[in-house]
Design a protein that fits this description.
The chain is an alpha/beta fold. The protein folds into two domains: 4-82, Zincin-like (2-Layer Sandwich); 88-221, Zincin-like, CATH 3.30.2010.10. The protein is built from seven helices and eight strands; from the N terminus they run αβββαααβββαββαα. The chain has helices at 4-15, 53-63, 72-82, 105-117, 164-179, 195-201, 207-221, and strands at 18-24, 31-35, 39-45, 124-128, 142-145, 150-154, 183-184, 190-191. The strands form three sheets. A three-stranded mixed beta sheet has the order 1-3-2, with helices on one face. Strands 4-6-5 form a three-stranded mixed beta sheet, with helices on one face. It has a two-stranded antiparallel ribbon with strand order 7-8. β7 and β8 form a beta hairpin. α4 (105-117) packs across α5. The chain is elongated, with a radius of gyration of 21 Å.
Length: 223
């Protein structure tokens, strides 16, 4: 493990300019760099305080612009440590919207949790976005924020135009993201849907029906 002071001194000595360090507790951006003429600004998540020397060496190469892109080993380190972060207590339950006009997200989530996960998942869920589709060409039905343990479902689905099995599939899909998290492969590419993920996704009893519904109706939904 490399101390921050020695790391900072090393970079400043080699770059011949000041390095300002900021430790953050962000939920999404784990690492950001701004190169200036006299100062380089580095903001990195607290996880890097425990990073092994090889990770910090790779980061040093990136800061010195010896490498154009962030190293795959750094990406893998971030992905591995993201799974250990838990900011769930920071979620304000009062700001979660679970009751829609047609669907109650919490009820559906609880049923799916019991049926497919033995009730072991402990995640938050909420609606997000606006119910109108107004000239949309694409919309993300669901999102999963791992550090917050939060599932967000787009309000466009809170409509009788969308069948019950479809919204259940979207929620189930986001729950599987918690069980089968993203990873970085040997080429440094972030993979969101692993083989394990796809296999678990197909266990949803109405998987084929939901996929067929989307393919059949996507041209009518988005114009």
């Amino acid at each position: 493990m490399t101390s921050l002071l020695s790391f900072q001194n090393q970079i400043e000595s080699q770059l011949k300019k000041k390095l300002t360090l900021k430790i953050n507790d962000n939920h999404s951006t784990m690492l950001s760099v701004k190169w200036g003429s006299t100062t380089t600004e580095l903001s990195m998540h607290r996880m890097f305080l425990k990073a092994p020397s090889n990770i910090m060496d790779e980061l040093a190469c990136y800061l010195k612009k010896e490498k154009r892109f962030i190293s795959p080993v750094i990406k893998a380190y971030i992905e591995d440590n993201l799974r250990k972060l838990n900011y769930q207590k920071q979620v304000d339950r009062q700001k979660l919207y679970i009751q829609g006009t047609v669907y109650n997200l919490q009820t559906i989530y609880n049923e799916l949790n019991h049926e497919y996960f033995d009730g072991e998942l402990n995640l938050h869920i909420s609606w997000f976005g606006k119910p109108q589709q107004r000239n949309r060409t694409r919309v993300t039905f669901g999102l999963y924020y791992d550090p917050l343990r939060l599932i967000k479902i787009h309000r466009i689905l809170d409509s009788p135009n969308f069948p019950d099995y479809l919204i259940r599939y979207v929620i189930y899909h986001e729950m599987v993201h918690h069980v089968c998290p993203a990873y970085v492969d040997e080429k440094g590419i972030s993979r969101i849907h692993s083989k394990e993920f796809k296999a678990m996704e197909r266990r949803f009893r109405h998987y084929d029906l939901a996929i067929q519904w989307v393919k059949k109706n996507q041209n009518q939904l988005f114009t």
